[in-house]
Amino acid sequence: MATENTSGLSEFEQKRLANIAERDALLKQLALESQSSGLFKTPKLPGNNGTKPKKHTPKRPKKEEESALPVRKSSRLRGFTADSEVVKRKAEEDAEAVREAERAKRIRRSDSLSQGDMFVAGQKLSGDSLIGVDVITKGVAKPYERTFGDEDIQKTTDKDLKALREEMNNLKLWEAWDPQRIKITPERVYTMAFHPSESKPVIFAGDKMGHLGVLDASQEKPIPSDADSDDDPDPVLTTLKPHTRTISSMMVHPFKPTHLYTASYDSSIREMDLEKTTSVEKYAPKSKALDEALSSLDMAPDDPNTLYWTTLEGEFGRYDMRSSPSESTVSRWQLSPKKIGGFTLCPSQPHYLATASLDRFLRVWDLRKLSPDEPVAVAEHESRLSVSHAAFNAAGQIATSSYDDTLKIYDLGAKGISSWDQGHTLSDKEFVPDTVVRHNCQTGRWVTILRPQWQLNPQSHIQRFCVGNMNRFVDVYSGSGDQLAQLGGDGITAVPAVAMFHRSKNWVAGGTASGKVCLWM
């Protein structure tokens, strides 16, 4: 071996040291690239820069939908060279797999569904049947602080109004089970409906992930056979999953009480047979690639065959279920440049409809004179902020909720809507709210938008509607804007934002962001 002189190392040693230096430089470069891309961060030790170690926070359990995503694995452990074409190609494939998994979860199911296909949780009812034969401070809510009570009732001078206030305030929270135990859907309740039967209260609720919950509130809490028994069974509930995305609207037509119609953000309207517990798609775009999220659904009281709906893109549609869906049988109109959050047909004059949209307008339309190219509204009124919902009642009144923290009532019955001819319009000065009620509508991101809902067939001459209250109540108002009741009770710990009246009985239900339901009867 060659001897080293005083000025340097041998050729072999110099080459070895050069290899070591090249390796160290490469490792340092890889570490810098990893840090800059966020893949690796050097942990801070206690005492560094005077900072204290962070407390350990337990990880939240992954949601069910995350299980469909591919598991990430280290490229180094799989033998891939950093920055190689193989790694880039693999990264692109993994990203595409994630996108495809997300798309697959959101695609609607077009096939007919049996109870077994939809069943998620709860108890399968006997006979496989779901039914038997027979503002205070703007934007700030103060939980449980009442704004209406006995003192307001005692001050009432109108005898009819006072009697109705007393009747509505005497409604009691269903006491068979604590509201905290009546979890009707796994996720946030987005829409609700009562079955029209007056013999027993049957409630349907749709949630943000496409689940449908069913509660028969005529059931009684079983009495334990053993007095010392600790058994305390939960109420009988049934949970199905007919849709893949948010159920935005639902209804049972009074002429067809064995069928429930549900509209969803998955672009479909489905018909569920409540006796057979089967679900059939009645309307959807021709291609599954088309995303036509449906925001609301309605049917005319005298026509159980025609579906009407609105979309998040501002469209309004109509389809007669007795025909095959095609371009010629499905009618569409672009009624708003932005999302239509809610709409209803006028029950007494179903050729009129009211739409509420994100562009801040309430509009009224006449189906008898609605151009497919340039539809013109009968009347329109602009609010300061977006309008969430427009609800028509049989008297020709429209109740709206808006992000300007108001409930507005427009009385078209008093303006002669029942005698209007085709082409009749109202000027901006004529179409203004007859009543404005201050009401906190600042629901935020996690609470479903507040929407007023009328009792369709009230058993008196006083019209009434209900709406959720951010203080953990459900408020009931008359058609003239007088508050009739403020419904609450022990065990209600969340906002019953989705409030619904039974069409003829004084039964009121409220659904919460935790999937639970409150019922007053």
Q: How would you portray this structure in words?
A:
The protein is of the alpha+beta class. It contains 5 helices and 28 strands. It has helices spanning 11-37, 85-106, 115-118, 150-154, 159-169; strands spanning 119-122, 189-194, 202-207, 212-216, 237-240, 247-252, 259-264, 269-273, 278-283, 294-298, 306-311, 315-320, 330-334, 340-345, 352-357, 361-366, 379-382, 387-392, 397-402, 406-411, 435-438, 453-454, 464-469, 473-478, 483-487, 498-501, 508-511, 517-520. The strands form 7 sheets. It has a 5-stranded antiparallel beta sheet with strand order 1-5-4-3-2. Strands 6-7-8-9 form a 4-stranded antiparallel beta sheet, with no helix packed on it. A 4-stranded antiparallel beta sheet has the order 10-11-12-13, with no helix packed on it. The protein starts with 10 loop residues before the first helix and ends with a strand. Mean pLDDT is 86; it is low at 1-6, 55-67 and 133-139.
Q: What is the CATH third-level topology name?
A: Methylamine Dehydrogenase, Chain H
What is Rg? 30 Å
Q: What is the strand content?
A: 25-35%
Number of domains: 1
Report the span from N to C terminus. 102 Å
Overall pLDDT metric: 86
Number of E-type strands: 28
How are the SSEs ordered, and which strands pair?
Elements: H1 11-37, H2 85-106, H3 115-118, E1 119-122, H4 150-154, H5 159-169, E2 189-194, E3 202-207, E4 212-216, E5 237-240, E6 247-252, E7 259-264, E8 269-273, E9 278-283, E10 294-298, E11 306-311, E12 315-320, E13 330-334, E14 340-345, E15 352-357, E16 361-366, E17 379-382, E18 387-392, E19 397-402, E20 406-411, E21 435-438, E22 453-454, E23 464-469, E24 473-478, E25 483-487, E26 498-501, E27 508-511, E28 517-520
